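Review form for a predicted model. The reviewer records the input and the model, then writes brief findings.
Reviewer: anonymous (R2)
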Amino acid sequence: MVRSVRIAGPGREYLIDEEPVDIVLSGGRIADIAPTGALRPQGRVIDADGAWAVPGLWDNHVHTVQWALAAERASLDDTRSASEAALRMGTVEPLSDGRRIGTGYRDALWDDRPALALLDAATGDVPTYLINADVHSVWLNSAALRREGFSTTDGVLREEGAFEISRRLNAVDPDHADRAVRAAGERAATRGVTGIVDFDMAWNADAWPRRVAAGFAAQRVEFAVYPFDLARAMKEGQRTGELLDEADLPRAGRGLVRVGPLKIISDGSLGTRTAACTHAYPGDPYNFGVMTVPREELIDLLTTATGAGLAVAVHAIGDRAASTALDAFAMTGAVGSIEHAQLVRHADLARFARLGVTASVQPQHAVDDRDLADRLWETQDSLGYPLASLFATGAEVRFGSDAPVAPLDPWQAMAAAVTRTADDRAAWHAEEAVTFDQALQASVRSATVPGAVADLVLCAADPRRAGVGLREMPVVATLLAGRVTHRA
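Model under review:
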């Protein structure tokens, strides 16, 4: 029993007032809800002392291993120039494998440009890698290029080359990665996270049972498959929503890991200036971004995935990419999501709801990228980082972080969606702000009602009245299927 708790999220509409209630949990689900003191306590009792409860929070877009390993890498998110980033990397202690790795820079905001000679002068013969905040480009010194077998005049690899470097950097010893993921999952539980969608570029069907067998039990997980593993997933009969074999898993980990969607990256990113857009990027009249998956290939992938019982998650940041993805959904009858949807044609907004395509967005990106968007998309006439407009069409909207691009903290995502700012500046495109109830709706998969899964978050303050304080929302406890994964 969770005793004396106020329900602040979905489910409160069934209560006649805001007085505390007791929630009885049984078999991983909510068995009953009644005014405090009306039911006899059963089993273990958690005294919430009037805390506010919302359903367990989900982050619907996470690069799990890269997010977990980011804690071991040098942060470059506050660097203001290529020269500063290069000099900082020259002082970074190499990791055990001899590499220096930094992450989080945003070169589109710099006045100078990344250059091979600049990075070589600062870092010498130690292989050095700087990962852009958007993960769509990586800046390497000559020692790193030789080690990886790549060649480029400015030291920068973009799109598939950058993804290959990230895959190699993330391919650490499995025990090392699993420990990092477990620790990161436990940290996420302190923020009320009970579920994640994992978009690691790896064969995750083996990794997740191994992690659960080793003790990971903090979140529910849906893991993606990439096109290079699609044939393997089909051969093994993987279908979206199905649980993996749990015969050898500990009891706490059962029911946690499910097959997710086929992930397709159809264009680039804003920061790398490769998001596929209708109009050219300023000062670069021939650069409209890149469609990394041609239209016909995208249609073929969606057709194959649908026939195999797999949902799809199509990365589409620019408006050309989003429009092409919606066309592919319409032509194939595929189900799933468009990931990011950062620039959307006005005429395409209603198509999300009409086609049943989920808009899986990352509200923190809007406030992190506002300066980039104002500079790089000033010539675009589509809608940038829409939220309220998507809700208004009736589309299903889900929130995520794209961690490690943004912190894995749904409270930050909700705060960004509600306030449209992350500093003391006025709201950026305030017309796209949403209500707290809408933000929470996009961050949960259940409600606090009898019969629902017992994934709960107990908050020390009323989140409906927190405003900008949502970012620092104090989480008293997190329960996953009635099991405590965090207690302050």
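Findings: The longest strand covers residues 46-55.
Further findings: The first helix runs from residue 64 to 69.
Recommendation: see findings above.
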